[in-house]
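Work Package 4 report. The design task specified in the project plan requires that, given a folded chain encoded as structure tokens, an amino acid be chosen for each position. We show below one input record used in the internal validation round.
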């Protein structure tokens, strides 16, 4: 047994970067051969990357709303309220707990879980966006209001393929203001330089929630010029359309590219997606530089995570409303004092494990309302495992489970009964459906048992979406 190196970072600062629609494999240092992410690469070299971090999926099309509620409450998907649109008082928020422990909490950027829960989480903040998405150059941001009265609301981005609308998905944008990644990062850098070091020595929790790389994918032109669509490689699982319609074909995310998806169109989307991430990476680097100038870097635990993945052409899909790896796996990096440098961990993790992990690292008691599992033991023991199976869901039409090798996906609608089975070791891109092939019968039976066990353990059937799915599954 390897000697434990588990760190305890009591009263350390926490700087949390949260990205929007960033897939797990979009960091160069973690294996992407074409994307440019020098600052995220530095974080990976400084810290420990959890390469099997996931979300459980989502109960609504706006997958990021429950995902963010899970992050901040440490609760599992079907034990949220209102699908995460609001958070009840009896669910202790991460920022709320840290305030009780003497932290100054400062929030910047996107908040998708209601103004009341924002003010419970943060004692201060700025450039706050309440909603799911916005034109990056015209974010209706709010100043912090101690009374919780916020007038700005999300602006709707219309479908660019509808008539009489302007295509904000294209990168040939008109720069009408300051880009969201710059807006949020500049405010964070100013706070770090001016206010991070408190006179009384109290630690801080800064949460920076970006809108990038969520569409509309627009960014400064210089970043788009870094990627030639014609030279970008396409994943093996890219195709013109998903092989069957399970109820997402006409949702907003899937209308970002016309059917059938052409290789030219997917390459354009990939170039814009990568350019958004590279621009975001640059702005994230500016915040890290400000942290260094503040003199607080040696006392700060840094977290980088994403709210969900994104298909961008894989399996003929554009969005994140599926149980495929590209949609449910996310980046997760911890860096800072006591965190092993330049290492990876492959334990199965959910985003809602971050809450109890921070509690353990900071020496805080995890609230009873939190359901996640602390990942801190993995920092000292690479062989440690949080769990052996993962459970996934999308709305009332998809349920899935995976173990260390296989993934079983079940689809149910009024018109469809479909099952897929993938060998994730031999076929990491989930190209070859093995369901119904000789020799897989026992694998399917075992995973089906786990699927039913997860339904019970997660209280899935009690949720309206789960209730409908399981009626159709029977």
């Amino acid at each position: 047994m390897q000697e434990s190196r588990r760190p305890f970072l009591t009263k350390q600062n926490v700087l949390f970067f949260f990205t929007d629609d960033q897939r797990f494999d979009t960091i160069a240092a973690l294996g992407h051969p074409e994307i440019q992410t020098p600052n995220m690469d530095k974080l990976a070299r400084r810290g420990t990357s959890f390469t099997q971090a996931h979300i459980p999926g989502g109960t609504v099309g706006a997958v990021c709303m429950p995902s963010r509620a899970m992050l901040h409450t440490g609760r599992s998907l079907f034990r949220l309220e209102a699908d995460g649109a609001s958070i009840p008082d009896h669910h202790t928020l991460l920022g709320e707990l840290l305030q009780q422990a003497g932290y100054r909490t400062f929030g910047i950027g996107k908040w998708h879980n209601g103004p009341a829960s924002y003010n419970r989480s943060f004692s201060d903040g700025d450039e706050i966006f309440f909603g799911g998405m916005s034109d990056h150059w015209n974010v209706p941001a709010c100043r912090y209001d101690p009374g919780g009265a916020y007038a700005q609301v999300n602006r709707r981005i219309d479908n660019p393929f509808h008539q009489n609308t302007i295509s904000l998905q294209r990168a040939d944008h008109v720069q009408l203001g300051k880009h969201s990644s710059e807006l949020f990062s500049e405010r964070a850098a100013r706070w770090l330089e001016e206010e991070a070091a408190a006179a009384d020595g109290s630690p801080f929790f800064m949460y920076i929630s970006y809108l990038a790389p969520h569409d509309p994918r627009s960014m400064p032109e210089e970043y788009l010029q870094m990627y030639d669509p014609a030279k970008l490689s396409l994943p093996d699982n890219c195709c013109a359309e998903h092989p069957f319609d399970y109820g997402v074909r006409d949702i907003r995310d899937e209308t970002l590219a016309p059917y059938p998806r052409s290789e030219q169109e997917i390459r354009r989307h990939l170039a814009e997606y990568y350019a958004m991430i590279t621009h975001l990476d640059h702005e994230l680097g500016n915040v890290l530089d400000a942290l260094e100038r503040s003199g607080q870097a040696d006392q700060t635990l840094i977290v980088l995570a994403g709210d969900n993945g994104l298909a961008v052409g894989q399996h003929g899909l554009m969005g994140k409303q599926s149980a495929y790896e590209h949609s449910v796996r996310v980046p997760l990096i911890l860096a800072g004092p006591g965190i092993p440098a330049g290492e990876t961990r492959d334990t199965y993790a959910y985003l809602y494990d971050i809450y109890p992990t921070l509690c353990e690292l900071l020496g805080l008691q995890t609230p009873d309302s939190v359901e996640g599992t602390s990942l801190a033991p993995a920092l000292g023991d690479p062989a440690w495992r949080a769990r052996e199976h993962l459970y996934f869901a999308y709305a009332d039409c998809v349920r899935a489970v995976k173990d260390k090798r296989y993934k079983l996906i079940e689809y149910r609608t009024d018109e469809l009964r479909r099952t897929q089975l993938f060998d994730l070791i031999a076929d990491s891109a989930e190209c070859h459906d093995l369901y119904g092939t000789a020799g897989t019968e026992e694998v399917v039976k075992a995973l089906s048992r786990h699927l039913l066990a997860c339904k019970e353990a997660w209280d899935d059937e009690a949720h309206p979406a789960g209730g409908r799915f399981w009626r159709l599954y029977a």
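The mean pLDDT is 93. Validation will be extended to a larger panel in the next phase.
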